[in-house]
Design brief:
Blueprint (H helix, E strand, L loop, with lengths): L1 H13 L1 H34 L6 H33 L4 H14 L3 H21 L3 H8 L9 H18 L2 H17 L3 H21 L19 H18 L3 H12 L6 H19 L1
Helix pairs in contact: 1-2, 1-3, 2-3, 2-4, 3-4, 4-5, 5-6, 5-7, 6-7, 7-8, 7-9, 8-9, 10-11, 11-12
Length: 289
């Protein structure tokens, strides 16, 4: 039941028009929780002073606080789930940046504001990267003082750094990003985090061999940790890099099939544009033969 409610809220927030309303409701519910707690404390205090007052109003406020808190938590979880989905599943750049900007502008508390500014800049860099504007994406990342954040927040930053440098063919910088990943694995105590870092590091090694060294890799498909099931990860790893890998293995037919599937996707994605170029090259090679 709770899962269905969260899925419904998630789908609403993914819609740009509904997202504003839901974010306002989320903020309003937060204020209601504070007001209800104050009212409960006040009623409880008055009932202690005046013994004739019943505890019923205080109990009603307590039930109200519990229900509102549950709603607030549900909205919070839905928002956290929905915002990344705007990019990784819907591949809607406008919705993604819209939600990040809204959250950043309406966050309260020094720590929350700092963290949400980080997510906004990282999100803007991601969008620039997936559009193929690697130089601008790198400039956006340089606006972030990554040392201010712990390892969990540094992972997506350095992962994006690696791929930007990969496509810019900044070999030393790309290797540095991978080395930082390996160090994170050594200092990490979380098994789940270690697994994610290992997965991303393996991706780095495989894509580096394919794109920079032009060496075929033993991977028939790639994995992207906790976003492996989402559409963008599938297109990027399992189609684009796998197609490049199949081409290096001499399997032009397999590469062609993967590029053809990829070419039907969102044209804003730089690797969809690259897939179309690769198809033209393969077609030219076939005509020559």
């Amino acid at each position: 039941m709770i899962t269905k409610i969260l899925d419904g809220l998630t789908n609403k927030i993914k819609d740009k028009k509904a997202s504003t309303i839901l974010f306002i409701i989320y903020k309003s519910v937060y204020i209601l929780v504070i007001v209800a707690i104050i009212a409960y404390v006040l009623v409880k205090f008055l009932s202690r002073i005046n013994k004739d007052l019943s505890d019923i109003p205080a109990n009603i406020f307590m039930v109200f606080i519990i229900l509102i808190t549950i709603l607030h938590m549900a909205l919070r979880v839905a928002a956290r789930r929905a915002v990344p989905l705007a990019l990784y599943d819907c591949i809607d750049f406008d919705k993604y940046i819209y939600c990040l900007k809204y959250i950043s502008a309406n966050s309260s508390g020094k720590k929350a504001k700092k963290l949400n500014r980080y997510y906004l800049k990282l999100g803007e860099a991601e969008v620039l990267f997936y559009k193929g504007d690697f130089e601008e994406a790198l400039k956006k990342l340089k606006e972030i003082n990554i040392e201010d954040f712990n390892t969990g927040y540094q992972l997506p930053y350095y992962n994006l750094c690696f791929y930007i440098h990969l496509f810019l063919k900044n070999i030393e910088e790309a290797k540095t990003s991978t080395d930082l990943f390996k160090r994170m694995n050594q200092t990490n105590t979380s098994k789940e985090r270690k697994k994610l870092v290992t997965t991303l590091s393996n991706n780095h090694n495989a894509t580096y061999e394919i794109y920079i060294e032009n060496k075929p890799n033993s991977y028939s498909s790639f994995h992207s940790g906790n976003v492996n099931s989402l559409k963008l990860a599938y297109l990027y790893h399992n189609l684009y890099f796998n197609a490049l890998n199949q081409k290096l293995l001499g399997n032009n037919e397999g590469a062609k099939n993967l590029f053809e599937e990829l070419s039907k996707e969102n044209e804003e994605l730089f690797f969809v544009q690259e897939a179309k170029k690769e198809l033209e090259n393969l077609k030219t090679e076939e005509e020559i033969l």
